[in-house]
Design a protein that fits this description.
Number of domains of chain C: 3
Oligomer: heterotrimer
Strand order of the largest sheet of chain C: 1-2
Distance between the termini of chain C: 7 Å
Largest interface: A-C, 54 and 59 residues
Number of strands of chain B: 4
Number of domains of chain B: 1
Strand content of chain B: under 5%
Number of helices of chain C: 24
Chains: A alpha/beta (about 400), B mainly alpha (about 300), C mainly alpha (about 575)
Order of helices and strands of chain B: HHHHEEEHHHHEHHH
Shape of chain C: globular
Number of strands of chain C: 4
Helix content of chain C: 55-70%
Shape of chain B: globular
Strand order of the largest sheet of chain B: 1-4
Distance between the termini of chain B: 45 Å
Largest sheet of chain C: 2 strands, antiparallel
Number of helices of chain B: 11
Chain lengths: ~400, ~300, ~575
């Protein structure tokens, strides 16, 4: 027993530290949060955000976060829900499904969380949906366009709602595509080439477009795809150019669409490029080469923001709040999503003891929400999709998007 | 099928770009038997260097005389990056097991990408590099394309091919006629004997890195003009493809890099015509594996060292 | 277990087993060391900060908060060191390099206090908010540094030969594992990034002190004598982990991802660490398993309408993965070194692009392209539904805990396979190939067969983990399996220490857990990751936990180390 003394000392050290840590409890005032604004005995409910707050897509993600933050601040200011203070808890998903799942589990574990705005990516949503739905937390996405998220695997033939707590304020592809098709036909454009980036959004858009366009007498003269990781689209352009299209319909987002339009025109294919709300972004025009982009078209949901009183209000308030990042393509949808949740909370929290017990009621109330939002009327159909059918076609005029035509999808 | 001539032109353009970058892999490999995985990032930094020069000195001026200055800026940025990289990261590992420099290269590659992404936009007056940045359309080398029957030849494509031609001639002269170039050949054949003959091997290695970086920088400008935009991720795929080109031509062999680049470009373009555009990268990587397995010395052949 | 060997060893170096000679040179430092660690210990009972909202209320006297408890532990550790230099623990001091230990411990404590003061400054708005306790702790730490500096370092002491009673050693090991478990469970609940970093730093300071005092050498030797006990204890602790979570899934979802990542990294370790074949496309094997798992899961999005029992799926997934491993391994007949790395990288990219293109648009509809296969149902073993919470003795075992426990079994299997392979004829064959392929071939080692086996075996394990990952993740998409993920896996292996189990586990935990806990840092995550790879290769290429043999490869000129490795080999032979 050469080391007996060691053992003795170790034991005594252990005992001492045990005694020290056991003596007296530390008051439980530690969980008083400094941000709740003066302990008026108000209960708190939290609205979560799951979006990419770092990485490539962080510009969009931060726009989502800020817009939700704005909606929550306004609700608190106007005492929209008496007796309750709303809080924001934004989690980063890095645009990765795994990280998104962690974020969702963390939110699901917080008793205060009643609703979540997010995600940006449909692929992340697939992982987040089951976790939030098990915890009965309402989820409203401002950006997911994959129809399967609401209508299940057989969304085209046998739609079936899989996650009753999931809603979205953006429209799905099967609304925008047909609207674009109708517009082009109206303009007398009968021969169109389609290109998409193979992602859910782009492919869905092109499929919906093609269906409507051919049904109404148009002709898709060439169809091809690009790899969104590429930066040079010459091969795709060459592939469609020979068919002599009068316009190119592109399914995808502006980081690819801008250069594509630019390179099309450089390669002598001087026809307008048309796309969905994924390309409706000022950055598209700068990537497409400014003046070179004149005449390019996009569709976006709702009437033009500038023409709606609500839209103007939102833009002004966003500016006044002084966020570092612009609202981005999904700011308006996110603001509407947060507003929809707050509207539902008015009903569900009214008689609730605590936030956790109001979760199911919030989901039920969300289904019945109807309010005037920034992107138009916010209401959800039986699958959780936005009911809005109002869309606007925009065109690039002297370096900016200008509204061309607003209408309803038939 | 009547796209074939046009796709060939596209292929040659891309191929020229691959060739310009591939020279960097091959020169360095020929001398230190090191696959400088971060070379794609040197190419990316070249493009950003050109853009920065333009922002700092010319903003809104797109006259053609701006171009040489932009190229000089690109070369300065790339060469500085490559030389620092060699000095800090690779030189201490010259006698380490082969795994070490390769892992270092991956680290440098990730680091440089992130560095540009995070900090480029923090320089006052520069746009954020978190997404694609439009590249200035310089007069003369961009704009209305030339028509050759049904085939369209764009100005940036001509610039790229011209750049490859000029660089190729310069390289030929440099390697064969200058003292440094001949010293490079000597080191590549037998570093120990070369050292005994009084050649400063460290210096030659630095020159090799710088030479490859300069060509990659020119490729960076060419790509910017061609695609009208650049981003921090542009180096990864380009680097991989250029490496494929270098292997295809026979790594360590400079003519081989050029031949390999053009071959790869054309092969990809033909794959687009006969198979489909979506599989062209798979095609390129499949080609890489086949060459490595069945003809590791490449098309033109090269000194194959035992790379265990 | 041969006690004779170390007795003999002890006899060779009599000064370590004999009662310690009076430490002549350390005399000056010892009183200072007592003073310093005394101050540190006492400071934990004082108020550190005026503002109660910083770091969990540091304002109380005689009632230490977690941040102060860490300092208390550091102070007590300092006292132990001082006592073993001159005092009741002199026997222990005979083997310890107390001066160096005190010096490093002091430095660690200084860093700890510096960060604490920084946190107080940042959160309470100014250094004025720091109370005397914090300054006392800082002074104590500085005194300890000085004390360590004044003493004379005695690195030659052979503490490894000191043995205690078997049960005491086992008890110490078990206690250490228990402490580790509690630390992890406790650290994970910290939501304040400052507190989390402080805890890490505190553990680091303690470790630095112990390492400086050569205590880890003793621990290493002891651990290798009782390796079975240690492994068992570690697994018991790992199994107990979900019980500490009190039904919360927030940490369990991270923990399961850490385990999946670790399991895959261990598979890669067979290929890279044992056989020395650099694989830059390894994530594809995990992906292959995951895709098989998803396609045969009966998800509404699956393209094949056949749902075999999960065990069959696992075997199909693992075999499919192994088949890919064979295919990608076959070029090793002709290609090696850097070229092989490139072949595997190209293969990884081909896998991702193929998954991307097999969408019915550019190829047969198998994987749904970029959209992947979502809505994968939960696992169900003979009626045991992994998706719902079960109860064990009244403690809730949540969904993620279910997967965690299953994955733990998988990783145990992988570790068993790994360590048995490592010490087998196959493992030695791999090492021979790694060191010198031609010599190995000449000695009659079946080089090609063994290389293929490494690839196929590694791929098999990754595929196995992949099938479970598919169910755990609920969806499978191609962009989860890109090159960067392979780079991360490789980094885990390299960071932790190639060819070791513990090191790779450590590397995997560091790479997966830290980004989750240091969210505020996430924008700079990749930047630091890149820098870390470069620095590791430059300064410690053998990894955090290096196998001795590996270490020698990277430091060929270190003769001292070479002797050590030889001794260990000889010992292995005699025991």
């Amino acid at each position: 027993m050469r080391l007996r003394s060691v053992t003795t000392v170790a034991a005594s050290v252990l005992a001492t530290s045990l005694v020290l840590s056991a003596c007296g409890s530390r008051g439980d005032n530690s969980n008083s949060n400094s941000g709740s604004g003066g302990g008026s005995g108000e209960k708190t409910a939290t609205i979560g955000v799951i979006a990419p707050l770092s990485g490539d897509l962080s510009a969009l993600g931060l726009g989502i976060k800020n817009s939700v933050d704005l909606a929550i601040k306004q609700a608190n200011q106007n005492k929209m829900i008496p007796g309750w203070t709303l809080k924001l808890d934004a989690k980063d998903d890095e645009a990765k499904p795994d990280t998104g799942a962690n974020a969702a589990t963390a939110l699901a574990g917080e008793a205060d969380v009643v609703g979540v705005v997010g995600t940006l990516n449909s692929s992340v949503a697939q992982n987040v949906q089951p976790i939030l739905s098990t915890a009965k937390i309402a989820q409203v996405s401002p950006a997911n366009t994959n129809p399967a998220l609401t209508k299940g695997a057989a969304f085209a033939t046998a739609p079936k709602r899989t996650y009753p707590g999931y809603f979205r304020t953006c429209t799905t592809d099967d609304v925008q595509g047909p609207f674009a098709a109708q517009y082009l036909l109206e303009k007398g454009i009968k021969n169109v080439a389609t290109i998409h980036d193979k992602k859910t959004y782009g492919q869905g858009l092109v499929d919906a477009f093609t269906k409507e366009f051919t049904a109404k007498g148009g002709k898709v003269v060439a169809a091809t795809t690009i790899n969104p990781d590429d930066a040079n689209y010459q091969t795709a352009i060459t592939a469609v150019k020979g068919a002599g299209p009068q316009a190119v319909y592109y399914g995808g987002e502006f980081p690819q669409a801008g250069p594509l339009s630019n390179q099309m025109k450089s390669a002598g294919l001087a026809v307008p490029l048309m796309g969905g709300d994924g390309i409706f972004d000022p950055k598209y025009i700068s990537l497409a080469g400014g003046a070179k982009a004149n005449g390019d078209l996009s569709t976006s949901v709702g009437a033009p923001i500038e023409e709606l009183a609500k839209g103007k209000e939102f833009q002004d308030a966003y500016k006044a709040a002084g966020y570092a990042e612009p609202p981005g393509a999904y700011g308006a949808y996110s603001y509407d999503a947060a507003q929809a949740i707050i509207e539902a909370l008015k009903t569900s929290l009214a008689s609730a003891q605590d936030a956790q017990s109001a979760r199911q009621a919030t989901i039920d109330a969300l289904g019945k929400v109807s309010l005037d939002g920034v992107s138009g009327n916010v209401a959800f159909d039986e699958y959780g999709d936005s009911k809005t059918r109002t869309l606007t076609v925009y065109t690039v005029k002297s370096g900016a998007w200008a509204p061309e035509k607003t209408g309803e999808v038939k | 099928m009547n796209d074939i001539p046009q796709q060939l032109v596209n292929g040659l353009t891309n191929g020229s770009l691959y060739a310009l970058i591939a020279v960097g892999y091959t020169v360095v490999y020929g001398i230190v038997q090191l696959i400088n995985f971060a070379h794609g990032e040197v190419f990316m930094i070249g493009a950003f260097g050109a853009l920065s020069t333009w922002f700092l000195l010319f903003r809104d001026n797109t006259s053609v005389w701006v171009l040489p200055v932009m190229i000089a800026g690109a070369i300065a940025a790339s060469v500085a990056t490559a030389v620092i990289m060699e000095r800090i990261a690779y030189r201490p590992l010259r006698h380490a097991p082969r795994l070490a420099p390769l892992i270092t290269a991956i680290g440098i590659s990730v680091f440089l990408q992130e560095f540009v992404r995070l900090f480029y936009g923090t320089i006052p007056g520069f746009p954020s590099a978190k997404s694609k940045i439009p590249f200035p359309a310089i007069d003369g080398v961009t704009g209305s394309p030339f028509h050759l029957g049904s085939v369209v030849i764009q100005r940036p494509a001509l610039f790229t091919m011209g750049a490859l031609l000029v660089c190729g001639l310069f390289l030929g002269w440099f390697i064969n006629k200058t003292k440094q170039g001949r010293a490079m050949q000597a080191v590549s054949q037998d570093p120990d004997t070369a050292r005994l003959m009084g050649i400063d091997v460290d210096r030659i290695i630095v020159i090799a890195f710088a030479l490859g970086a300069a060509l990659a920088a020119i490729a960076g400008v060419a790509q910017g003009l061609q695609n009208n935009n650049i981003d921090f991720k542009m180096g990864f795929m380009a680097g991989l493809k250029a490496f494929t080109a270098a292997v295809l031509g026979g790594i360590g062999n400079i003519q081989g890099a050029v031949v390999g680049g053009l071959t790869l470009g054309v092969a990809e373009a033909l794959a687009t015509v006969f198979v489909t555009g979506a599989w062209k990268d798979v095609f390129a990587f499949g080609l890489l594996i086949l060459v490595l397995v069945f003809r590791p010395q490449g098309l033109l052949g090269a000194r194959v060292v035992d790379r265990a | 277990m041969s006690t004779t060997v170390d007795r003999a060893d002890g006899a060779n170096s009599p000064d370590s087993s004999a009662p310690a000679p009076a430490p002549r040179a350390t005399g000056k430092g010892v009183p200072l060391a007592y003073a310093g660690s005394g101050l540190m210990t006492a400071s934990a009972l004082m108020s550190w900060c005026y503002d109660p909202d910083v770091l969990g209320d540091l304002t109380l006297y005689g009632n230490p908060a977690p941040v102060q408890l860490t300092m208390l532990v550091l102070g007590l550790l300092g006292l132990v060191l001082a006592m073993s230099a001159k005092g009741p623990l002199r026997r222990l001091g005979a083997g310890l390099d107390t001066s160096r230990g005190a010096f490093r411990l002091g430095l660690g404590a200084v860093a700890y206090m510096a960060l604490t003061l920084a946190a107080i400054t940042a959160q309470a708005g100014g250094l004025v908010n720091a109370d005397p306790g914090a300054w006392v702790a800082l002074v104590g730490s500085l005194v300890l540094v000085v004390a360590g500096r004044l003493g004379v370092s005695r690195p030659s002491r052979n503490i490894g030969a000191m043995r205690a009673k078997g049960w005491v050693e086992i008890l110490v090991l078990v206690a250490l594992v228990a402490i580790a478990l509690l630390l992890v469970a406790d650290g994970l609940t910290l939501r304040d990034p400052w507190a989390f970093v402080l805890l890490l730093l505190g553990v680091g300071a303690a470790a630095a002190g112990l390492a400086g005092a050569n205590a880890f050498t003793w621990l290493g030797v002891t651990a290798s004598y009782h390796s079975r006990v240690l492994t068992l204890a570690a697994f018991v602790a790992a199994f107990a982990f979900p019980l500490t979570q009190n039904g919360s899934d927030a940490n369990m979802s991270i923990a399961t991802q850490v385990i999946i990542f670790s399991a895959t990294a261990l598979g890669l370790n067979i290929v890279v660490g044992l056989a020395g074949l650099l694989d830059l496309g390894y994530i594809a094997f995990l992906g292959a398993g995951a895709y098989v798992g998803a396609i045969l899961s009966g998800s509404a999005f699956a393209t094949i309408d056949w749902q075999p029992p999960f065990l069959v799926t696992v075997i199909i997934g693992a075999l499919f993965s192994a088949l890919l491993g064979l295919i990608i391994g076959s070029p090793t007949l002709r290609v090696s070194g850097d070229y092989l790395a490139i072949v595997t990288l190209a293969f990884g990219e081909i896998f991702r692009l193929a998954m991307f293109n097999l969408d019915g648009n550019n190829g047969p509809k198998i994987t749904n392209g970029p959209n992947g296969i979502p809505a994968i149902p939960e696992l169900n073993f003979f009626g045991f539904d992994f998706g719902v919470t079960h109860h064990l003795f009244g403690i809730p075992i949540t969904r993620f805990s279910n997967y965690y426990l299953l994955l733990l079994c998988v990783i145990a299997l992988i570790i068993v396979i790994f360590s048995n392979l490592n010490n087998s004829r196959i493992g030695r064959g791999w090492v021979a190939i790694r060191e010198d392929e031609k010599a190995a071939d000449a000695m009659g080692v079946n080089v090609f067969g063994l290389k293929l086996l490494a690839f196929a075996g590694g791929a098999f394990l990754a595929g196995l983990a992949g099938t479970i990952k598919a169910h755990h993740d609920v969806s499978v998409t191609p962009d989860q399996y890109q090159f960067l993920e392979s780079a991360f896996l490789l980094a885990a292996v390299v960071l932790g220490g190639m060819g070791t189990v513990g090191g790779v586990l450590l590397g995997a935990v560091v790479l997966k857990l830290l980004p989750e806990k240091l969210r505020f840092f996430s924008e700079y995550r990749l930047l630091i990751f890149g820098l870390l790879l470069v620095l590791m290769m430059r300064f410690r290429p053998e990894g955090l936990v290096a196998s001795k043999r590996r270490k020698l490869e990277f430091h060929e000129d270190d003769e001292h180390l070479a002797d050590k490795v030889q001794t260990i080999h000889l010992e292995e032979k005699t025991s």
